[in-house]
Amino acid sequence: MIRKSLNSEFNTMYEIINDASTAYKGKIPEDRWKEPYMDEHELREQIADGVEFWCYHQDNAILGVMGIQHKSDVTLIRHAYVRTTARNNGIGGKLLKHLSTLSNKPILIGTWANANWAINFYVKNGFRQVSHIEKEELLRKYWNIPLRQMETSVVLVSSDFDSKLVF
Q1: pTM higher than 0.85, yes or no?
Q2: CA dist list (Å): 126 to 19, 38, 72, 100, 111
Q3: CA–CA gap between residue 20 and residue 128 (Å, rounded)
Q4: For residue 6, what is the DSSP state?
């Protein structure tokens, strides 16, 4: 079952994010890795900034979380994580499919350039990676991330994305 997160599930979401993010260790630039990967303050800031988290529940446990953030003319998928013990069971795909139904605007996703598994997952689910120039413009317009993170990230877009309508 997929449903919007409850305030009481904050600690579980925090735990899942930091468990699942261990996949990035040694893959993303060393200067971008920290422990915990996302601290509680940062997670609270993301929620306050409009990231709405959804949880995948199975057998009375949360196994995955994914955020959605509605911007003016696009929707961002943010912070997609599945517990390491539950990976490769279709949970991420189910969350992505569900969140995609919550928007009638083009969907953008940012991830680390060295996270090939994440890029392949999004491509398999109908997204395409944009050019370096488009990536730079989209990250500046819709995300609030450090320059170093911009340099080491990619952006993927849904099939209904038309750069002429955004730039």
Answers
A1: yes
A2: 26, 28, 22, 11, 15
A3: 23
A4: P
